[in-house]
């Protein structure tokens, strides 16, 4: 970024901070202002009640302009090369699509307070492209909180005109299920010869995948990658056919040689075409909306539970009894719930 562009960016950010109302942010987002989009996402992360109200208003304004994208989830164990893949795959996407947003869910960052902003440095070319927006997951104390804010961020990005949204799982485990619940297409990256210790992770999420990619198919790893792909193709034949009538595909890929990137993008385009023709694409979106409703309700109830001083103190007494074995966790939970209901009357 040259000095003039930096100066312009700093001035626009200053102006936006001075007028951070939901209406101003909404107008700027619809105009495609990346500074406004960043500030709107920061607004979503805020714990201040006044800013949370502004965030709600902003989401309501953006909602009618959302939904016009293909949402793609990307997951894989550490070392599989997600950042390198997204960098090169993003460049392939931009050949035919207008704007790309890259979001990430990183529940592990809660343990250290860290950030995956480092992905911006690993995705050097993408991060410098004016048609690309890269953002780490919104911070939160629970995976549910991170997921809710990621869903809201999707709405903001779509209102800003991003027609492809990549959602990357940085952690391994429950985050795969969360990402699967908010995307149209779920892509699993696999590495040949990764070791038996990773097989359990693969088995747990393979059935969720709409496409499987064997990465790093280059150099000395080509033969191993081809063998792994052959084994995967045999394995997925044993899975029951998905209700959307899509058969998951296995594709070899290399971020170094760009092998398979065009095939992966065509696979996703074919998936979108098929599922929109048989309406399963839209039915999946409806199910996701209901899921988001239920998840948000659970989170709001839990937040309200802890926001009351008396309930919080009652919970602490029950926690001690659970730790010492005086009562069971189930009984304590029921007693806490009944106490909460009585306090709220």
Overview of this protein structure:
It is a single chain. The protein has 16 helices and seven strands. The chain has a seven-stranded parallel sheet, sandwiched between helices.
Strand order of the largest sheet: 3-2-4-1-5-6-7
Amino-to-carboxy terminus distance: 57 Å
Report the average pLDDT across residues.
85
The count of DSSP E runs of length 2 or more, i.e. the number of strands, is: 7
Unreliable sequence segments: 110-118, 196-200
- Broad shape: globular
Please give the count of helices: 16
Tell me the radius of gyration. Answer: 22 Å
Please describe the biggest sheet, giving its number of strands, its sense, and whether it closes into a barrel: 7 strands, parallel
One letter per element, helices H and strands E, the order comes to: HHHHEHEHHHEHEHEHEHEHHHH
Helix content: 55-70%
* Beta-strand proportion: 5-15%
Features:
globular, 345 residues, alpha/beta, 7-stranded parallel sheet, 7 strands
């Amino acid at each position: 970024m040259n000095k003039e562009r930096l100066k312009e960016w700093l001035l626009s950010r200053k102006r936006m901070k001075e007028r951070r109302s939901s209406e101003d942010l909404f107008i700027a987002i619809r105009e495609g202002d990346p500074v406004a989009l960043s500030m709107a996402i920061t607004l979503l992360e805020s714990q201040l009640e006044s800013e949370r109200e502004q965030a709600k208003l902003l989401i309501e304004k953006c909602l009618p302009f959302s939904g016009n994208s293909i949402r793609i989830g990307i997951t894989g164990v550490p070392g599989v090369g997600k950042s390198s893949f997204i960098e090169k795959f993003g460049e392939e996407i931009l050949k035919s699509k207008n704007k790309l947003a890259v979001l990430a869910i990183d529940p592990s960052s809660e343990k250290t307070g860290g950030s995956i902003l480092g992905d911006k440095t690993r995705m050097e070319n993408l991060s410098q492209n004016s048609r690309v927006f890269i953002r780490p997951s919104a911070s939160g104390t629970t995976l549910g909180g991170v997921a809710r804010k990621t869903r809201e961020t999707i709405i903001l990005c779509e209102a800003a005109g991003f027609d492809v949204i990549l959602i990357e799982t940085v952690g391994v485990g429950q985050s795969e299920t969360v990402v699967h619940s908010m995307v149209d297409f779920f892509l699993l990256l696999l590495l040949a010869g990764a070791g038996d210790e990773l097989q359990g992770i693969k088995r747990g999420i393979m059935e969720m995948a709409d496409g499987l990619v064997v990465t790093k198919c280059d150099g000395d790893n080509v033969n191993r990658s081809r063998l792994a792909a052959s084994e995967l193709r045999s394995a997925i034949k044993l899975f029951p056919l998905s209700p959307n009538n899509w058969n998951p595909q296995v594709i070899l890929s290399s971020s170094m040689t760009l092998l398979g990137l065009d095939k992966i993008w065509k696979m996703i385009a074919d998936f979108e075409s098929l599922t929109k023709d048989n309406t399963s694409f839209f039915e999946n979106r409806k199910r996701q909306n209901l899921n988001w409703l239920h998840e948000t309700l659970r989170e709001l109830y839990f937040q309200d539970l802890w926001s009351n001083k008396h309930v919080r103190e009652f919970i602490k007494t029950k926690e001690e009894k659970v730790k010492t074995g005086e009562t069971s966790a189930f009984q304590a939970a029921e007693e806490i719930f009944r106490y909460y209901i009585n306090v709220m009357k």
